[in-house]
Amino acid sequence: MIGQSTVLAAAFPPSVEDFYLPSILPWGAHDSYWFTKITVLVWVAVAAIIIFFLVSYRKPQLVPTKKQWIAESLYGFVRNNIAVDMIGPQGVRFAPYLTSLFLFILVNNFFGIVPLIQISPMSHIAFPAVLAVISYVMFIWVGIKKHGIAYFKHAVMPNAPAGILPLLIPIEIFSNFLVRPFSLAVRLFANMFAGHMLLLVFTLGGFAMINANVLLAPISVLSWVLTIAITFLEFMVICLQAYVFTVLTASYVQGSLADEH
Amino acid sequence: MIDFYLAAEGAPEHNPIVPVWQEIVVGTVAFAVLCFVLMKFVFPMMEKTFAARVDAIEGGIKRAEAAQAEANELLEQYRTQLAEARTEAARIRDEARADAEGIRQDVLAKAREESDRIIAAGNEQLAAQRESIVRELRSEVGTLAVDLASKIVGEALADEARTRGTVERFIADLDTAGRR
């Protein structure tokens, strides 16, 4: 315990490097990224989701079993409360992708607060970036398919007096085609990054204080209690961010499908 | 201080907003696998189940409506048949009544005819008998009167032909006197 706390306390304050753990295969390497805790967690998340859905939906019944009901509720939630609500009746065809997206983010985020794992792959920008690029390509693709090349015109030209257009068009281009993928990726990444950082600060801070002076032990305990409290806060952030990413993707798709405004 | 630890661990320095390309590959492939499996094998099944559920409920309602409609139709049919049967029964009753009346009239007429016939026959017979009686009486009265007169006079009348003529005259007088 003392040895461990010394090791942990030595790493205080936590730094960016705490997010880049040594790789598993080859063991302990610092410049290999194919087989790390992070990538293993991604695969575990994918496997867990697939297995859960395949098992619970192996024999679908009209009157669902409990597992089937949970699986249906997850899909039904994204389908009805995100896809159909945001996009309208034609949103149903986007529901499968949006649900996959939602579940992928949710489960990966969730690793951030699972005891002994406590780091989310989404705190590495590569994963949110991939998802954001897919969303970006998707909403542009959907727009072109629906409106042809005119999509770009009505995506950047708001219904405004001609005089103000020179000002609005650059803003629209900037916000619709430059900022969107970054804001999507960075929002998710930063939330998970900050969540992990917060947990690190409070956990390691407790060790740092108790190591510095035994009299600070009560404050260390307070720090650890706060870690637990922050874990609950993180749970909220995890669900919220998964929801926000999915809703924003749906909203971009809706914007692309919308008729001239 | 960070630099110190980094140097100590001998690790390359990371920038958190520069993605690691290996992780991009892993993320893309993992997410693609997830999307492929869920979108190909799971969610279409769910949509099918949802549709089947909606169908089961709506189908049930539709079937119930059909059954209701059929029941209504049958009821209507039965009512029509019942009404027809009633009309038919009433018609048969009326006919029977009319028939009965007709038969009664017939019977009455026949009876009346029969009685008339019997009465007429009786009358005729009576008349005939009366006629024969009158005839017999006339001859007998003549004989009796002659016998009586001969007894009274005390002598047989010699000329029978004369006597007959007298008697005849006498009876004709009686007849005319009677008619008067």
Automatic annotation (TrEMBL), chain A:
<keyword id="KW-0406">Ion transport</keyword>
<dbReference type="InterPro" id="IPR023011">
    <property type="entry name" value="ATP_synth_F0_asu_AS"/>
</dbReference>
<keyword id="KW-1133">Transmembrane helix</keyword>
<dbReference type="Pfam" id="PF00119">
    <property type="entry name" value="ATP-synt_A"/>
</dbReference>
<feature type="transmembrane region" description="Helical">
    <location>
        <begin position="34"/>
        <end position="57"/>
    </location>
</feature>
<keyword id="KW-1003">Cell membrane</keyword>
<feature type="transmembrane region" description="Helical">
    <location>
        <begin position="156"/>
        <end position="178"/>
    </location>
</feature>
<dbReference type="InterPro" id="IPR045083">
    <property type="entry name" value="ATP_synth_F0_asu_bact/mt"/>
</dbReference>
<protein>
    <recommendedName>
        <fullName>ATP synthase subunit a</fullName>
    </recommendedName>
</protein>
<dbReference type="InterPro" id="IPR035908">
    <property type="entry name" value="F0_ATP_A_sf"/>
</dbReference>
<keyword id="KW-0066">ATP synthesis</keyword>
<keyword id="KW-0375">Hydrogen ion transport</keyword>
<dbReference type="GO" id="GO:0045259">
    <property type="term" value="C:proton-transporting ATP synthase complex"/>
</dbReference>
<dbReference type="GO" id="GO:0005886">
    <property type="term" value="C:plasma membrane"/>
</dbReference>
<comment type="similarity">
    <text>Belongs to the ATPase A chain family.</text>
</comment>
<keyword id="KW-0812">Transmembrane</keyword>
<feature type="transmembrane region" description="Helical">
    <location>
        <begin position="184"/>
        <end position="209"/>
    </location>
</feature>
<keyword id="KW-0813">Transport</keyword>
<keyword id="KW-0138">CF(0)</keyword>
<dbReference type="InterPro" id="IPR000568">
    <property type="entry name" value="ATP_synth_F0_asu"/>
</dbReference>
<feature type="transmembrane region" description="Helical">
    <location>
        <begin position="221"/>
        <end position="244"/>
    </location>
</feature>
<keyword id="KW-0472">Membrane</keyword>
<feature type="transmembrane region" description="Helical">
    <location>
        <begin position="125"/>
        <end position="144"/>
    </location>
</feature>
<feature type="transmembrane region" description="Helical">
    <location>
        <begin position="94"/>
        <end position="119"/>
    </location>
</feature>
<comment type="function">
    <text>Key component of the proton channel; it plays a direct role in the translocation of protons across the membrane.</text>
</comment>
<dbReference type="GO" id="GO:0046933">
    <property type="term" value="F:proton-transporting ATP synthase activity, rotational mechanism"/>
</dbReference>
